[in-house]
Write a structure and sequence with these properties.
The chain is an alpha/beta fold. Helix content is 30%, strand content 24%. The protein is built from 18 helices and 29 strands. It has a seven-stranded mixed β-sheet. It has a seven-stranded mixed β-sheet with strand order 10-9-8-11-12-14-13, covered by helices on one side. The chain starts with a strand and ends with a strand.
Length: 705
């Protein structure tokens, strides 16, 4: 009897152990991702051919006890590698695990490779070639605290590769994981199976091959053991012949159904099913899982599916209603069926409004997932409300506050001529978000939770927020954008989040602007500076206006509309200067009197010789852009900046200086010593929709006698 190690994904180990036992393997140990077992060579061949759950099978060469001082090279040199390969064969080496004398696995693999190559050179005068991609023989050393385990790759490339997949969707399940889900779901041969998010069809094809008793390894060109010394070709040929004989004819009775809304994925699924020899058993159709018209068959069965579950919090607005509407469709048409869903975000299952029967943990690639079973009993399907399913009953207080704010602010905004405004700003501390309305679309900013708040509780509260916003505001979920706002440093405030390229026109006080709600953390328009921009418009008549740190030029637009004789817009970002130019064009503003300067504002001030009558300065809190000579800190550097403006001021000029740093302290003493007269206008520049957060910004008016 030989010892083998069967590898698999986390969560599949016990199922794999049962499979090994079913083929007369003796299971020795089950650990994360590995099942160690004893078997004769015929059983090992059989498992390579028939295992649906293993990803690789390795044969143990030997295990050596080690200490913290053990040297991998010396121990490996004592193994007779000539019994395992010839000098004419190429090899590759892998290393897994940690040891005090091995800094990384790449180094461990190199030490093992050196030991093998040096041994052949000493004994034969020649050395085998190394081929990392397609070696004749692959060895692996696994390190743990007490042993070096030397193994020979017995099966070759991953066993999940059945050979039928020509293409895959965006989030494919590997074949061995699909087989594990089928096993855990309780599905059995002869029971109808439906996948409403079928993608490239892996779950259904695996089930069809199981139903036809097709050995998953039959389509492979070769296995690693076929190149190993002592390969028993006659035994292997007989096993393959027996497997072919045991396969059942496909027939033409549909037993499996798959639907999706991606025609390309459906096309791939049909191709994959044809290559697997099961096309006649599976019906693939275009259908929206959230709007099912009826059951795929009158016989009750099992639904096993891998719906979208996203990897970012920003995916929640679209996913919550998808799960909710999918559940309503199932309750309408699939009473008596079992539902089995895999997801990396178990919170989404809340939207199903179903009580789970069982749950299992799996890994889908790098994602930790939960595979949850629901029985769609008569009692379960009665819960068919489309109302939000909240984690916390107290979360309804957020919805109530948002509705109250909407009623008050909407009327005010209409009178003021505003199409974008803030509806909620952490009014209830536990629901630490901002909700901004942009003419029919909504941006929800989640502020980073304090370290004292449990991360899971914070995410569940966010789920409750996102679940209520569309209902309260009367919008479809795709009109809601979720962003996570953390403390920003440097130019991180300009960091791109997506590349949707969708711009939307909004307006305030007669000015029109392009905003981008999806691609950046900020939208292109700071709503809290609305009053300040209107002040510039009201004071700009006949003035030469300078806008420093201009962002998308919204203040410049107001100044131009107000009748400024010239407007100079300065920012370091070409992206935002181009945006500013588009804002000018949107308002019909063009001419040589409007200048746009791409530059570090401090450097530009040092070289500019122009004079201005009205200067607006709204710098970032902090910046360390590579295009700047030095870092910028508004608390540290504001006096220097303002004093640089003195030489740019025409007689009677005024500076309006603002920033959004919390707890900012203006250095009155230093400014007064430099001859400035300062007036704090922060309260006067606070819009109605921001009065719940009076510390959102500070604003000062500065003049010189």
């Amino acid at each position: 009897m030989l010892e083998f190690w069967a590898l698999t994904s986390k969560g599949v180990e016990e199922l794999l152990a049962d499979e090994i036992r079913s083929y007369q393997g003796e299971v020795l140990k089950v650990s994360m991702g590995v099942v160690r077992f004893k078997a004769d060579i015929k059983t090992a061949y059989t498992l390579c051919l028939w295992s649906r759950l293993a990803t690789r099978i390795l044969r143990l060469i030997q295990s050596e006890p080690v200490t913290a001082e053990s040297d991998l090279y010396q121990i490996a040199s004592n193994i007779d590698w000539g019994q395992l390969m010839s000098v004419r064969q190429s090899l590759a080496v892998d290393c897994v695990g940690k040891h005090p004398k091995i800094d990384n696995t790449q180094y461990g693999g190199m030490r093992l490779k050196d030991a093998i190559v040096d041994q052949f050179r000493e004994e034969t005068g020649d050395r085998p070639d190394v081929d990392r991609l397609n070696p004749d023989v692959r060895f692996q050393v696994r390190l743990d605290k007490q042993h070096f385990h030397f193994l020979l790759d017995f099966s070759g490339p991953s066993l999940h590769q059945r050979g039928y997949r020509t293409g895959q969707g965006e989030a494919p399940l590997k074949e061995h994981l699909a087989a594990a889900l089928l096993k855990r779901s309780g599905w059995t041969v002869g029971t109808p199976l439906y996948d409403p998010f079928c993608g490239s069809g892996t779950i259904l094809i695996e089930a069809a091959q199981i139903s036809l008793n097709q050995a998953p390894g039959l389509a492979r060109e070769s296995f690693a053991f076929e190149r190993a010394p002592g390969f028993r070709a006659a035994v292997w040929q007989q096993l393959k012949a027996d497997a072919k004989a045991q396969a059942l004819p496909a027939g033409d009775i549909i037993q499996f159904w798959g639907t999706d809304t991606d025609e390309r994925s459906l096309s791939k699924a049909r191709q994959n099913a044809a290559r697997a020899g099961v096309a006649s058993l599976i019906k693939f159709d275009y259908a929206d899982a959230t709007a099912l018209k009826g059951a795929v068959t009158n016989t009750q069965g099992v639904i096993v599916t891998n719906p979208p579950y996203g990897e970012r919090l920003g995916d929640l607005p679209a996913l919550i209603p998808l799960y909710s509407n999918f559940s309503l469709a199932l309750k309408t048409h699939y009473q008596g069926w079992r539902l089995a869903i895999i997801t990396s975000n178990s919170d989404l299952l809340r939207a199903l409004r179903l009580s789970k029967a069982k749950s299992y943990k799996f890994s889908n690639g790098p994602l930790d997932c939960e595979f949850t079973l629901f029985d769609l009993t008569e009692k379960q399907v009665q819960v068919s409300s489309s109302a939000p399913a909240l984690f916390f009953s107290e979360s309804s207080a957020f919805g109530n506050r948002l509705a109250k704010n909407l009623k008050a602010i909407q009327k005010w905004a209409k009178r003021e001529g505003l199409s974008c405004y803030r509806l909620y700003d952490a009014d209830i501390p536990e629901y630490n978000v901002a909700v901004d309305w942009y003419d029919g679309e909504v941006v929800v900013h989640e502020y980073a939770a304090p370290g004292t708040v449990d991360e899971q509780i914070a995410q569940k509260r966010l789920f409750d927020v996102v679940n209520q916003v569309p209902t309260v505001l009367g919008i479809s979920p795709d009109k809601m954008i979720l962003k996570v706002r953390e403390k920003q440093k440097g130019t991180n405030q300009y960091q791109a989040l997506a590349k949707a390229g969708q711009y939307k026109e909004v307006s305030e006080y007669g000015a029109k602007f392009w905003v981008n709600l999806r691609d950046y953390l900020d939208t292109g328009l700071f709503l809290d500076h609305r009053i300040t921009r209107r002040m510039l418009q009201q004071q700009a008549q006949g003035k030469r206006v300078l806008n420093l740190f201009a962002y998308t030029g919204s203040a410049s637009v107001h100044a131009a509309i107000g009748g400024a004789t010239s407007v100079t817009t300065v920012d370091m970002s070409n992206t935002y200067l181009d945006w500013a130019k588009r804002n000018f064009m949107l308002n019909g503003l063009n001419g040589k009197q409007y200048q746009f300067e791409q530059a570090d504002c401090l450097q530009w001030l040092a070289r500019s010789r122009n004079l201005f009558d009205l200067i607006f300065v709204d710098p970032p809190t902090f910046s360390n852009s590579k295009r700047m000579e030095d870092s910028w800190d508004v608390q540290r550097d504001h006096v220097k900046l303002l004093n640089m403006l003195i030489s740019k001021m025409a007689p009677g000029a005024k500076v309006i200086f603002s920033n959004n740093k919390r707890r900012f302290k203006l250095d009155y003493a230093a400014l007064e010593e430099a001859g400035w007269q300062v007036k704090d206008i922060s309260a006067a520049t606070l819009p109605e929709d921001f009065k719940r957060n009076p510390h959102i910004h500070v604003c000062f008016e500065l003049t010189r006698p």
